[in-house]
């Protein structure tokens, strides 16, 4: 059975699809297939569409560059790590109530006075 996931993309959106290659045990091999999802938007003129497509291709080019160029890969990793220290994104604990379709997300905030 093939499962498909659909996203709510606007006609002018450009999306990058990363598909992990899996082995016979459904373990990631470390390889990815990079693809671009775009439609011919009536909102963008030809020049803007071409510019967006070029920009999206440039972003996709970063994947093989990270594999081939260790300095580039380290620079991207360093930038990513420095940016992640700037954001405080809570990771919720997920619990499902038995015999229901209720899922609870607990963000474990320190506030307990009802203002969390």
What structural keywords apply?
116 residues, alpha+beta, two-stranded antiparallel ribbon, two-stranded antiparallel sheet, 2 helices, 4 strands, 33% helix
The rough form would be described as extended
Mean pLDDT: 84
Number of helices: 2
Rg over alpha carbons: 20 Å
State the separation between the terminal residues, measured CA to CA: 42 Å
SSE class: alpha+beta
Strand content: 15-25%
Number of E strands: 4
Task: Spell the H/E element sequence.
Answer: EEHHEE
User: Order of strands side by side in the largest beta sheet?
Assistant: 1-2
The profile of the biggest β sheet is:
2 strands, antiparallel
Helix content: 25-40%
* Low-pLDDT residue intervals, each spanning 5 or more residues: none
